[in-house]
Amino acid sequence: MSTSTISRDPGYPTDRENYLTNSSGILSWMFTLDHKRIGLMYLIGVMTAFAVGGLLALGIRLHLLDPEGWMFTGAEANNIYNQVFTLHGAIMVFLFIIPSVPAALGNFLVPVMLGAKDVAFPRLNLSSFYLWCFGAIFFVSALFSSGLDTGWTFYTPYSTTTDTSVILATLGAFILGFSSIFTGLNFIVTINTMRPPGMTWFKMPLFLWATYATSIIQVLATPVLGITLLLLIAERTMHVGIFDPEFNGDPVTYQHFFWFYSHPAVYIMILPAFGIISELISVHSHKHIFGYRFIAYSSIAIALLGFLVWGHHMFTSGMSSLTTIIFSALTFTVSVPSAIKVFNWLATMYKGSISLTTPMCYAISFIFLFTIGGLTGLFLGTLATDLHLHDTYFVVAHFHYVMVGGTLIAFLGGVFHWWPKMVGKMYNESHGRIASLLVFLGFNGTFLPQFVLGSRGMPRRYATYDPEFAFLHQMSTYGALLLGCGLLYAFIVLMLSLAKGRRAPANPWGGATLEWACTSPPPYYNFERPPVVGDPYDFHNIEWDAKEEKYISTEPERKLVPEETPGQVPAHH
Amino acid sequence: MATIDSLSSESETHDEHGHDHDHPAWLAHHFDTPEQQFDSGKLGIWLFLVTEVLFFSGMFCAYAMFRMLRPEVFEGCSQFLNTKLGAINTGVLLFSSLTMAWAVRCAQTEEYKKLVVMIASTLSCAMVFLGVKSIEYSHKWGMGLLPPGSYFYDEANPHPTAQQIVDQHGFSESAAYFLTHSLYFLCAPFLILLIGVAIWAVYSKVTDKQFQYACAKPLLVVCLSFFGGVGLGMILESGGGEHAVAHVDGEHAGDHGDADHAHADHSHDAPAEVAATHAVPAFDIESDDAAIELLAESELNTGARAMLEAKQAQAEMATGQIVAAGVEADLGIHRIEQDVQTKRQAGVFFGIYYCMTGVHAIHILGGIGVLVWLLIRSIRQDFNRQYFGPVDYVGLYWHLVDLIWIYLFPLLYLIR
Ligand code: HEM
Ligand SMILES: [Cu+2]
């Protein structure tokens, strides 16, 4: 380093500071109020849920290997199939995808990116986690009692007449809803009131913008799901006659209520993923994010517009044709802000110096897959085509492209990006990259054939099918197996890093947001005093230190302290 | 940087309050100033209230829709609600909002005695509200004014005995016993609570535990208020009761008359409505059938044949000609058309009524929980002019619960 610059590097934490080790014992985790520990516990929780949901998914795919059904046999085969796909969907949506990015990564990152010591309400944060656990217990008990076969959407009147454990599962979802509401509330308040001096709204990292927009949806939409599920429970137990046609209720009302939450919920899933991708693309291209304000505003626009389009799930449920036209038109408007983001990411990469690290591999896969998912959404939003495609595999493929190809891939990218920060260990890059390639190939192998299946008329949620679809279904199943292997590989890469990984420097990728300004892992108090805030995407003074294999931030030497100590006599008498 | 600084001071303790000696005990370690803490809490509670409003909005939507679809049901059934009791409860809640607001002021001015009195009065009002509510509920349950699944009101015999409920309406013995004795069941938990608090008060008095006694005393009053409410409700229900019930029965008898084509005005639309619901599906089925029948002529077209069969089965079930094999006789459409203008329809009103007021009552119970916590904290004198946030936040919550009732009362009781 030249003498005219000084470099800043926080070094490594001591065991007493490291948030992972500063206190020990199971109780110090169970009652922790530290957002980082809570985030880590969430991470373990959602990954477990993902593993369970993933195994169920493999069950579905294996069953569909043969037109007559392969995996489940006997008289109950179709019922088992119904239960498996329902639980797969419900677990993945409520226990994994919705809490994945906001609750796990968000909890870890939001306060650190803000240079704050914790979220605004640490106790509420811990209780959100326990609510999540309770919700999970309810789901598992539904699984072990009489199962659930309504599909994740719990449509009435089937859900009020089936004798599976609808009540347990809806109670679980209800509780999970509150977990989600409290997390969102906590983040809104934290971002509003705890930004450090100098961090104006437009100096916030885009991940925080995305989290903020997500939180708005969580707070505004989830209560409606809560009351819907509560009324559904009341309908089942007391027959209150709101959703059940047998008692003069109206099932379409249920669908309206349900989608009023669940369409915004798909943005709860995808917005944080957008936030992650904005960070990843900029950091690993070592280039200032293109169109910062557009990306920030488009998150908010999506959050608000997302409330107006729920009817596109009900084009065939018997709404008036005027209503369907309006909902269709509104649906198209939502895709505009999503497209804005994609173009801005591409522009960021253009002429950047891209390092093809593992997180960046995931980010690039994301752009591919999300684009496909979003564009196919337009076919579904078009009335004339949706009448054919509704409830076919085309819809299945669409939402897996946005939820798995979008959110899951971004989540993985985020985990690989912040893993060194969270656990203080580097993983093996080349293995990480191979895993991401397997995931990409496996994913496309699974879901690309499903677009074709759907457009040829294969309906969703069927346990058996016409032999003409066999080839594509088998292709999809082999893709799923490859995808499973890829995910397992990625998991092993992470786990091995814990045992064998190199100690992570404070700033392994050259990021400029605040989380890279504290040690890896951060001390339990994050920052002793509010850190200096700069442009989160200005990489000019971040330099690669080849000897130590890490990035350090440099700044021109400034004489902050006067050379001489002031005289003993005060200036004014 | 953070780490380097603290490395140099290894000996310094880094427990939660280690480096913030300027933090008063009530200021959480992750906040810099009392203002920041207060603002965070305030924003937090406002957001929470937004979620509460949205939570109720689902039910208000349902109310609006069903009212629009069946105005006559809502008009007829709302007469079963006792306006006097509703009005009393409205007054009680409004008063409790006053005492709550006053409590916030007292916390700010550090008038601890008054603060305790105000919170205890708010709590007592909440209890009176619940007392009156249990009279309302138990009265209706006894008459069978229940959600459609269990509705059994019979104007010829509005107050059946348990045995009659079992015999005529097919309830189980225990359910019938519960319905006819529901007031006792509703009061029982509060009675247990009252006895518990009384024992606690005596015990703490005897063992001279000042603080506990100071808590138990107001709580005893609070528990008693529940029974005050029950008493008040009983007087109003029975005093004006004879008249009210007779009046209600009279008007409702009119409603039932409609079904028997007695009254002039309503009887017109009711059959017309039924006819309309008949006509629409019939038309559809026929026009589709023609095309499908054509297709089904080919033996190879199994799809069309299956569809035709399904359509025929549907049509038969819809007209109630047969009961499909293996399906319970209780199949929807058929049953409802018979029951138009009677029990099942009236049940829809009560379904919504119980959902809305029930969820509201749960919010009152929740409010009581946090108010008790506030009461204990204010007896401990936790609050001061810089730190009164919790009182303020609970106050806001309480006002919202109050406000929701202000909407429920006219919508359910008053509008005809
Ligand atoms: C980019 C703009 C998008 C458009 C225009 C769009 C449009 C649609 C439409 C019209 C449907 C209904 C199809 C049918 O049932 O016939 C649908 C289904 C679905 N979409 Fe999207 N979508 C978009 C993005 C997303 C995103 C980002 C997610 C989630 C992260 C998502 C998740 C889903 C899910 C889960 C379903 C199926 C729900 C079910 O029936 O089980 N979509 N989408
Ligand atoms: Cu949607």
UniProtKB/TrEMBL annotation, chain A:
Stated family: Belongs to the heme-copper respiratory oxidase family.
Keyword Heme among UniProt keywords: yes
Annotated region (Disordered), positions in chain: 553-573
Domain Cytochrome oxidase subunit I profile: 29-534
Top-level taxon in the UniProt lineage: Bacteria
Keywords noted in UniProt: Electron transport, Heme, Iron, Membrane, Metal-binding, Respiratory chain, Transmembrane, Transmembrane helix, Transport
InterPro entries according to UniProt: Cyt_c_oxase-like_su1_dom, Cyt_c_oxase-like_su1_sf, Cyt_C_Oxase_1, Cyt_c_Oxase_su1_BS
Composition bias, Basic and acidic residues: 553-562
Location in or out of the cell: Membrane
Protein name: Cbb3-type cytochrome c oxidase subunit I
Statement: the UniProt record of this protein carries the keyword Cytoplasm: no
Regions crossing the membrane: 40-64, 84-109, 129-146, 166-194, 206-234, 254-277, 289-310, 322-347, 359-381, 393-416, 437-458, 478-499
Membrane topology, as annotated: Multi-pass membrane protein
Cited Gene3D superfamilies: Cytochrome c oxidase-like, subunit I domain (1.20.210.10)
UniProtKB/TrEMBL annotation, chain B:
Stretch list, region Disordered: 1-21, 250-270
Major localization listed first in the record, in broad terms: membrane
Record's keyword terms, sorted: Membrane, Transmembrane, Transmembrane helix
Basic and acidic residues bias spans: 11-21
Keyword Transmembrane helix recorded: yes
Transmembrane portions of the chain: 43-66, 86-104, 116-135, 183-203, 351-376, 396-415
Cell compartment(s), UniProt: Membrane
A UniProt-annotated Pfam family: COX3
Protein name: Cytochrome c oxidase subunit 3
UniProt xrefs under InterPro entries: Cyt_c/ubiquinol_Oxase_su3, Cyt_c_oxidase-like_su3, Cyt_c_oxidase_su3-like_sf, Cyt_c_oxidase_su3_a-hlx
The organism of origin for this protein: Aporhodopirellula aestuarii
PANTHER family: CYTOCHROME C OXIDASE SUBUNIT III, NITRIC OXIDE REDUCTASE SUBUNIT E
